[in-house]
Amino acid sequence: MNNTCVLVTCPMFTYLEQELETRFNLIKLWDHSSSKAEFFNNYSSSIKAVVGNTKVGADAKLIDSLPNLEIVASYSVGLDKIDLDKCKQRGIKVTNTPDVLTDDVADLAIGLALAVLRKVCVCDQFVRSGNWISGDFGLATKFSGKSVGIVGLGRIGSAIAKRAEAFQCPISYHSRSKKPNTNYKYYSNIVDLAANCEILVVACALTEETHHIVNRKVIDALGPKGFLINIARGAHVDEPELVSALLEGRLGGAGLDVFENEPEPPEQLFALDNVVLVPHVGSDTGETSKAMADLVISNLEAHFKGKPLLTPVI
Amino acid sequence: MEHHQERSDHRSQDLPQVLVIKPPPVLTLFEDKFISSKFQLLKAWESTLPLDQFLTNYAGSVRAVLCSGASPITADIIRLLPSLQLVITASAGVNHIDLTECRRLGIAVTNAAGVFSDDGADAAVGLLIDVLRKVSAADRYVRNGLWPAKGDYALGSKLGGKRVGVVGLGGFGSAVAKRLEAFGCTVLYNSRTQKPSVPYPFYSTVLELAADSDSLIICCGLTAETRHMINREVLLVLGKQGVIVNIARGAIINEKEMVECLVRGEIGGAGLDVFENEPNVPEELFGLDNVVLSPHRVVFTPESFVAASELVVGNLEAFFSNKPLLSPVIYE
């Protein structure tokens, strides 16, 4: 197995790279960025596995250039950077990292909501800059009891709901279809969901259908007292519409972990007190990063030993 | 039967007075809620007289005083209020009231416990998540343009599975515990006495609690026993990854020792809403990314303040109608 060539698409996590290196012949795509043609000549037919993530996955071009690719093991739960159709066509297996990151992402969703509503970051800056000496801070917005609307009630959406319930937030949701085993109120139309909640949380997968699912209509329905929390994908939100709504006061505030053009969030947001911006850290804890890496390794090992994959997507 | 004088512009002079030495924030922000047909406010802070002279001249028949942390009710103040029967605070905390003296003189005390529990607990959890997941620090990182320049931010620490020690399991502590359970935390607690119907493991000392916890959340009142209860010894036992959150009173923690521990990396981080000498905050904390600071605001939401003002007014109206007080502090 030590001779099996595994391509990792970009720097992800040192521990993951180290663990891959002890088991496989690890090829780092970014080591060859200046000589791509040469790289593909030398290595492309020996690469049997690709480890990608939310930044650089496995698109059609990459898959087409790797004739002996057997498996794509994503260091993420989101699959939007993988050409799944192409993989299906070619019989390439795909795995991701569900469940191990659910808690962290859900925790961050609530953390962002608390930070925006209770102005945690603004207060921190107020104290650090010495302004408390000269004056008082005003009131913030209460979080407990606010109605929370969740877009996508999968693993992460459900985990967010469970946490929000402990704060006595009434929960409602929108998804492709109504979920059978829940008491949460269902809205088949996302605009209705936005009109009927105070905090809208995006927690669904990014697909063609959900691209820009949070558009001007949804933002308007959420309104000047409403808040948007996005821990899913930047492309779920029509970002220019979001920015103008925030600048014009048509939306109450936003907590954002993801953006359409990472790592460059819209700079117009940087001066606003009613937004919290974090750099795609939803699953970025030591504990979860290691658990995700271990899952990637386990899936690859299982594949190359002919054993069942742990978390196959296809 | 009482003979009622004809109501004219002297009506307000008939109403009993409630002394206010300095206005609590809830009065400043929601003054219209304090207009009542049962009492009027005697605003000592509007006078240019020194306080003791003002009280001697004008407060001789005052039966009730509305106080706050900024205007403590000491034995000296009480001595200048010979008719005092009720001390009302718009806060949950009562450490600024000489309870011993009040008890000795049969003066009732009411506070605003209960109305602040949700907001206080929300803020405590918000601070804990912020410290563990570096939310404020990461927000600064983004706003300073460092994401494209320097790449991924440092990893945080997972909240789920953490053992969180709650110090004081009253209204705030219970509300914090209930929330933390939903995040998959194991809740442990210390308080003066063990609570029989509570599912969390009890630790009889803060030191033992800290030794077994990953994080500590301070939710208890400030008393002679709890002053500087969290000291270097407790913090060292909490350890290098340990996080402390304080939404109670600054003086429960030995601030100087805590700052030293933070600066030296002997504990993992802190989320602090209260300080020993507000609004002064030790400047060493300003340069630390593993500390989140808040200007004594954990209950500053409109909902809490409206509820607090209603409770204060409710207590005052009950008092002046000879009805039972709504939220008396029970002496132990």
UniProtKB/TrEMBL annotation, chain A:
Q: Name one GO molecular function term.
A: NAD binding
UniProt-listed PROSITE patterns: D_2_HYDROXYACID_DH_1
Q: What UniProt keywords apply to this chain's record, in alphabetical order? A: Glycolate pathway, NAD, NADP, Oxidoreductase, Photorespiration
NAD found in the keyword field: yes
Residues in coiled coil: none
Specify the D-isomer specific 2-hydroxyacid dehydrogenase NAD-binding domain's residue ranges: 110-282
Q: Tell me which SUPFAM superfamilies the record gives.
A: Formate/glycerate dehydrogenase catalytic domain-like, NAD(P)-binding Rossmann-fold domains
- Indicate whether NADP appears among the record's keywords: yes
Q: Name one Pfam family in it.
A: 2-Hacid_dh
UniProt domain D-isomer specific 2-hydroxyacid dehydrogenase catalytic: residue ranges: 18-313
Please give the start and end residues of each transmembrane region.
Answer: none
What Gene Ontology terms for biological process does this UniProt record contain? oxidative photosynthetic carbon pathway
The name on file for this protein is Hydroxyphenylpyruvate reductase
- Provide the species name: Theobroma cacao
Q: Which gene encodes it?
A: LOC18595943
Automatic annotation (TrEMBL), chain B:
Q: Does the keyword Coiled coil apply?
A: no
Ranges for domain D-isomer specific 2-hydroxyacid dehydrogenase NAD-binding come to 125-296
Cite the D-isomer specific 2-hydroxyacid dehydrogenase catalytic domain residue spans from the record. 42-329
GO molecular function list: glyoxylate reductase (NADPH) activity; hydroxypyruvate reductase [NAD(P)H] activity; NAD binding
* Protein name as catalogued: Glyoxylate/hydroxypyruvate reductase HPR3
The record's family statement is:
Belongs to the D-isomer specific 2-hydroxyacid dehydrogenase family. GyaR subfamily.
Provide the taxonomic classification: Eukaryota, Viridiplantae, Streptophyta, Embryophyta, Tracheophyta
Keywords per UniProt: Glycolate pathway, NAD, NADP, Oxidoreductase, Photorespiration
Q: Which SUPFAM superfamilies does this entry report, sorted A to Z? A: Formate/glycerate dehydrogenase catalytic domain-like, NAD(P)-binding Rossmann-fold domains
Q: What are the BP-aspect GO terms?
A: oxidative photosynthetic carbon pathway
Q: Which gene encodes it?
A: LOC18614255
InterPro entries in the record, alphabetically? D-isomer_2-hydroxyacid_DH (IPR050223), D-isomer_2_OHA_DH_cat_dom (IPR006139), D-isomer_DH_NAD-bd (IPR006140), NAD(P)-bd_dom_sf (IPR036291)
Top-level taxon in the UniProt lineage: Eukaryota
- Does this UniProt record's set of keywords contain Plastid? no
Source organism: Theobroma cacao (Cacao)
- As given in the record, the signal peptide range reads none
